[in-house]
Design goal:
Elements lengths: L1 E9 L5 E5 L3 E2 L4 H12 L2 H13 L12 E5 L2 E3 L8 E16 L7 H11 L4 E11 L2 E12 L2 H6 L1 H20 L3 E5 L9 E3 L2 E5 L2 E12 L2
Antiparallel strand pairs: 1-2, 1-3, 1-4, 4-10, 5-6, 6-8, 6-9, 7-8, 7-12, 11-12
């Protein structure tokens, strides 16, 4: 999997522009990547960056200039040489991105196990998964496929696959609501070859630093 960052920089005319890094290969499988990012985000260096952003960011300095968004690919990626762009080669995971969910603070520790129960009953999945809370109203559920797909772009665009993904997302959103939250919707664009999800880490959200954090990892039975 590949990690990238989204940052903002100021051009010669003084305008702020968004820039995505070229990306680099991350060690280990996706679950290990998320766990390492969670530990790192709790360290003093990352907390100090968040404190500095809280003090310094505003109209003249956007938060992403200090706290870049940290992302990780949903596909296993490759490229012919280091000069070329990364390309999706194998799809081992899907990312169920739930936005606009209110009342997540009302849910408890059973949320991850309840989501895992739904995932484990789906024949298209291996049962391995992770849940990242991305904001006060956002969740990203990483779900490993039972079998990897070696043509990610074609597989993700298949109508049957998109119908399955929609159903999985609605089922997971239903669990979140039963656990005490309300509202929310599935971002269907999160199913795609070479897309990126959020790694745990500090980000700028709603005019203040927020630590996207790992709620739990399930490695299956």
């Amino acid at each position: 999997v590949v990690g990238v960052s989204l940052a903002e920089y100021q051009d010669r005319e003084g305008r702020w522009r968004r820039s995505r890094s070229r990306g680099h290969q991350l060690r280990g499988d996706l679950l290990e990547v998320l766990e390492r990012a969670e530990v790192r985000s709790q360290g003093e260096k990352c907390r100090e960056s968040a404190r500095w952003a809280s003090w310094s960011c505003g109209p003249d300095l956007p938060g992403r200039a200090v706290l870049p968004d940290l992302l990780v690919s949903t596909s296993s990626m490759g490229r012919p040489s280091w000069r070329d762009q990364w390309e999706a080669r194998i799809q081992r995971w899907v990312l169920v991105d739930l936005d606009g969910v209110h009342g997540l603070d009302r849910t408890d520790e059973s949320l991850v196990s309840s989501l895992a129960e739904v995932v484990s009953q789906d024949v298209e999945t291996s049962g391995r998964m992770a849940v990242v809370r991305t904001s006060s109203t956002g969740l990203q559920v990483w779900v490993e496929l039972a079998a990897p797909r070696h043509s990610p772009r074609r597989w993700c665009s298949t109508p049957e696959v998109r119908d399955w993904f929609q159903g999985l997302g609605e089922s997971l959103l239903g669990v979140v609501r039963r656990e005490g939250a309300d509202g929310g919707h599935l971002d269907t664009s999160s199913l795609g070859a070479g897309r990126y999800g959020r790694r745990p880490g500090w980000r700028w959200k709603g005019g203040a630093p927020y630590r996207a954090h790992l709620l739990g990892v399930v490695r299956g039975v």
